[in-house]
Design brief:
Organism: Microbacterium profundi
InterPro entries: Glyas_Bleomycin-R_OHBP_Dase, Glyas_Fos-R_dOase_dom, PhnB-like
Number of helices: 2
Shape: elongated
Radius of gyration: 16 Å
CATH class of the largest domain: Alpha Beta
Order of helices and strands: EHEEEEHEEE
Structural class: alpha/beta
Distance between the termini: 30 Å
Number of strands: 8
Protein name: VOC family protein
Number of domains: 2
Largest sheet: 4 strands, mixed
CATH architecture of the largest domain: 2-Layer Sandwich
Pfam families: Glyoxalase
Strand content: 35-45%
């Protein structure tokens, strides 16, 4: 782990959400259940801790009884320049499936490309890149 990694508490669908992010971003996904962590404050098959590592890193779990589920307002997860343009375009398209395009991925007046999407789990992403000069 090399920096800030978001840790999201999901409302009972952590396995589904983290599997979706794994499908989008690739990398390695590890999921551990409440039962594996000897937790008794929820169903044994609930996710006590999940880790996605790779180009995009996320941690997550199913919210416990005293935890609020994720609801992020006034913030976005930035993926600016984190991969090649074609990969970022693919990520944007996948995050948009069953989500909401807040601002389509497009070329901006200053020459860069960016856009924002809120995915099916309510997480807003800023995806962008600089245009590659011809021949690079």
């Amino acid at each position: 782990m090399s920096g800030l990694v978001p840790y999201l508490f999901f409302p009972g669908n952590a396995r589904e959400a983290l599997t979706f992010y794994h499908e989008v971003f690739g990398g390695d996904l590890s999921l551990f259940t409440y039962e594996q962590f000897s937790r008794t404050d929820g169903p044994g098959d609930a996710i006590a801790h999940g880790m996605l590592s790779g180009a995009v890193e996320l941690f997550g779990s199913d919210a416990g009884p005293d935890q609020d589920a994720v609801h992020i307002v006034g913030a976005t997860f930035s993926l600016l320049g984190t991969a090649e343009p074609a990969v970022l375009q693919q990520w944007f398209a996948q995050l948009s499936e069953k989500g909401t395009d807040v601002d389509p991925l497009q070329k901006r007046p200053w020459g860069d490309f960016d856009g924002q999407v809120t995915d099916r789990y309510g997480i807003r992403w800023l995806v962008g890149y600089q245009e590659q000069p011809a021949g690079e």
